[in-house]
Each structure stands twice: as structure tokens, then as C-alpha cells.
Specification:
By secondary structure, the chain is an all-beta fold. The protein is 2% helix and 46% strand.
Length: 386
């Protein structure tokens, strides 16, 4: 594929300087008064450069000058966060197998911290995500298990946390041990879970799937979207890393493939009502993605470790090639997020100057930089005022 290139002089200067943060931290960044999702706190999962530890840093979006505070809850490096109103949830993944709830009013303490394994598990559950409904009910995908949990996030004891299970064993491939459930989201009373279905050597030799579940009954839905006997939706992109929902684009799933020149990754779009699937990008290893609006989507292509490239894509004209943002070509981007005022948030993992870079999608120019103590790896948003 031949890519268009977008030259942005102001940001190119920063890229030439190793993204050294030469832009000032102005008051022009995201705020709750802007368009988009309401939020007043950014929750950032961070990791040290040696991948020996991780912690959470918080950014108060109500301040004129954005700064990161923390870090909170120092733990292993393999962590993820999920924002929800005035709380966020910290998941400690492989071999730690814990999830904790934090009230933003008191961010140094856990409201609770529960295990994600039970007596029937033979190894690490490796919890990946927490998929929240509009009540106390949530779903806990477990990467190391054939069963995802149904949980109560308002449970007052660990015994009351787990409410049930979803059996995903039909998706375990013949050359693998578990379905490798990576992420999920809830749309219109349906839970969508993304399964990588990797082989035992973690190669993406099998088609990935999305399964759909009725959140009222916790029964799997027959989507009739696959020629196989599986009920779920077969994807074109392999080794999916995440699933994003936007009302103007539907479900968007991005896959990183084998992270090599086979180009098995890409971007698939799924209609959550009809389950129809369209391949938007078919020959790029897509590592992270953020949907800004119906006309604007950003994604990163994985080239090598610490070497990724940022692209812009228009979902309304999917036949057009993605546009390479030259000033963010071959840099260490760890994650993307759509900010609450419609800006793009970039987790910059440069070891000498890590932080969050905020881009205006109208120009793809940087409008703010928020330094972090450790390297940012995931960005979520929560609303303390709700």
C-alpha cells in the first residue's frame, strides 16, 4: 500500500529533537467543557523503562495547566486501568492476578482489592480488562483461562465479587490451550469479547473472533457471522489488541498480527446490530487505536520495539489510504486515547522524557505535553464530579 504523508512543521521539530517536550504546557488541552465524553480526570497506567514495576498517575483536567500526580499503587509492570465515574480499576495481570477499585477522592487507597483466580484454576488467570455495564455488574476477561468472570464491582467482600462465569471454551483452537480473551465492551445490552485464539507458541495462526453475549441472560448470541460452527464473528485482522465503540462507527477492532513483515494485522469494523464485518485496513500491524469522531480515527503501526508510526484514517471514506503523520513516524508510542474534548492523547514512552502528548485533530499538531514520572502505557478517563 502507498501511504499519503502529512507534514506538520511544528510537530516535526519536536520529532527531530526526540520528542523532547519543547512545546509549552498551555491551557488549550482537554477540559470537561469541550465536546466529547465528559471527564475530569485522566488515569494513566505507567511502567518503568526496565519493565520491573508500574504505577498509576492521575491528571486533573480541571486545572489550567495539566500536570500528572502520583504515582499510586506501585506494583508489577503488567497492569491495566479502567475508568468509571468517580472510580478507576487497576488490574495486575500475569502471575499477580489481582484487581482493585480506587475512589478518586482518596486515590492512595483501594476501596477493595480482590483475587481473579479460584481453586479450579491451574495457572495464572492473567486478567486483561474490566468491562462495565451501567450497574454494579461487570465482566472480567481472563487471558489465561477459558472462562471469563461475571463480577459485582460493589461487592463488600471477595466471596461476593465473583457472580458467575462465561464459558469460552468453544473458541479454544486445536493448536492452543485457551481462547486468549484480550478485551471487551458493552453496547446496547450486548457484551462483545475479543479473542486472539493464538497457537501455543503465541503465533497468530488462527482467525480471531468476537463473541456476543446478552447481558440480561449471560447467554451467547448466535451472530450467524461465520461459516464455522462458532456463534461469534470472525475477524480478518489477527492477534487483536483491543475493541472500541463509537456510535458513528460501530465496533472497531484492531489487530497487530505477528508484529513482523507478514502484515497479518489490520482494522475491522463490526455493526453491533447486524454483526456485518468490514475490513478497513488489511495490511498493517495495528498496535493501538483511538476513534475521535465519524471522520477521524488514529492508529499506530508496529514496526519494531519502541518504533511505531502514527496514522490518521477517515472511517467515512474507508477506501482511501491512511495518512502517515510524519512527525510521529518511528517513535515510541505506547497507547492512544480519544480525549474528552475531542483531542488525541498519545502515550509517549521515550525514556528520556516520557509523558502525554495531546494533538488537535483539526491540524494534527501538538497543543500540550504532560510529563509523567514513568513511561505511560495506557490512558483512561473518569469523572470525579459524577
Amino acid at each position: 500500500m502507498t501511504f499519503q504523508k502529512l507534514s506538520v512543521l511544528a510537530v516535526a521539530v519536536a520529532a527531530a529533537g526526540g520528542l523532547s517536550g519543547c512545546f509549552s504546557s498551555s491551557s488549550s488541552s482537554d477540559s470537561p467543557s469541550g465536546s466529547g465524553t465528559s471527564a475530569d480526570t485522566a488515569v494513566v497506567a505507567t511502567v518503568d523503562s526496565s519493565f520491573e514495576s508500574g504505577e498509576v498517575e492521575l491528571i486533573d483536567l480541571t486545572q489550567d495547566e495539566l500536570t500528572a500526580s502520583g504515582g499510586y499503587h506501585e506494583t508489577i509492570s503488567d497492569i491495566s486501568v479502567r475508568g468509571d465515574r468517580q472510580h478507576y480499576y487497576l488490574t495486575e495481570r500475569f502471575q499477580s492476578d489481582q484487581i482493585g477499585k480506587v475512589d478518586l477522592e482518596n486515590p492512595s487507597l483501594f476501596v477493595w482489592e480482590y483475587s481473579t483466580v479460584d481453586e479450579n484454576d491451574s495457572g495464572s488467570a492473567n486478567p486483561r480488562d474490566l468491562v462495565l455495564t451501567d450497574s454494579s455488574k461487570a465482566y472480567l476477561p481472563r487471558y489465561g483461562s477459558e472462562r471469563s468472570w461475571i463480577v459485582d464491582v460493589e461487592a463488600q467482600s471477595e466471596d461476593a465479587f465473583k457472580q458467575g462465569e462465561l464459558d469460552l471454551s468453544p473458541y479454544t483452537p486445536k493448536n492452543g490451550s485457551v481462547p486468549r480473551v484480550q478485551a471487551g465492551t458493552v453496547v446496547n445490552d450486548q457484551l462483545f469479547l475479543v479473542m486472539q485464539r493464538l497457537a501455543s507458541d503465541f503465533s497468530p495462526s488462527n482467525e480471531a473472533y468476537v463473541s456476543a453475549w446478552d447481558t440480561a441472560t449471560d447467554e451467547e448470541i448466535e451472530t450467524s457471522a461465520s461459516a464455522s460452527q462458532l456463534k461469534g464473528i470472525q475477524l480478518s485482522a489477527r492477534n487483536p489488541q483491543g475493541i472500541t465503540y463509537h456510535p458513528e462507527t460501530g465496533l472497531v477492532i484492531h489487530g497487530v498480527g505477528a508484529r513482523d513483515d507478514q502484515n497479518l494485522g489490520g482494522i475491522d469494523q463490526v455493526n453491533p446490530d447486524t454483526y456485518a464485518t468490514t475490513s478497513w485496513v488489511a495490511d498493517q500491524d495495528v498496535d493501538s487505536l483511538a476513534v475521535i469522531d465519524e471522520d477521524t480515527l488514529y492508529f499506530t503501526e508496529y514496526n519494531a520495539f519502541k518504533d511505531v508510526s502514527l496514522f490518521r484514517f477517515d472511517p467515512s471514506t474507508p477506501a482511501e489510504d491512511p495518512v502517515l503523520i510524519e512527525s510521529f513516524d518511528g517513535v515510541d508510542i505506547r497507547a492512544l486515547a480519544a480525549g474528552p474534548s475531542g483531542n488525541l492523547w498519545i502515550a509517549d514512552g521515550a525514556a528520556d522524557n516520557p509523558g502525554i502528548r495531546i494533538l488537535d485533530p483539526e491540524s494534527s499538531q501538538q497543543v500540550d505535553f504532560v510529563p509523567t514520572d514513568l513511561l505511560p502505557k495506557q490512558i483512561e478517563f473518569a469523572n470525579l464530579s459524577e
